[in-house]
Amino acid sequence: QVQLVESGGGLVQTGGSLGLSCAASGRTFSDYTMGWFRQAPGKEREFVAAISRGGGSTLYADSVKGRFTISRDNAKNTAYLQMSSLQPEDTAVYYCAARIGLLHSSSYKYDYWGQGTQVIVSS
Predict the structure, then answer these.
(1) Segments of the chain with pLDDT less than 70
(2) What's the CA gap between 105 and 7, in Å, rounded?
(3) Quick one: which of 8, 44, 52, 95 has the fewest CB in 10 Å?
(4) Which of 58-68 are b and which e, b meaning 16 or more Cβ less than 10 Å from the residue's Cβ?
């Protein structure tokens, strides 16, 4: 299995940028498709982005397309989410997740989860 730890959350103003990291340990990182999800207070967890094992393919939610970029560095066992043009509706706890298999946007398809990191976008 793999253990995931997110970092990089914080408070940012509307229109600002923030980068999140997800450090993995345990099993070979490049075995896993990686995803980012978020959960706002009172709302269900929603898909943000995913990246294939080698990094050649990505998938984004429509709400973040063009503003967020997912990437990974398999040599560093780390996945990233670079967020720009942040809006108050992006405020949420952001989670990284891992799965064996192809890109997927459903949280139920991911087997391993980090503890989350809070992102607050002030208006």
Answers:
(1) none
(2) 22
(3) 44
(4) ebbbeebeeeb
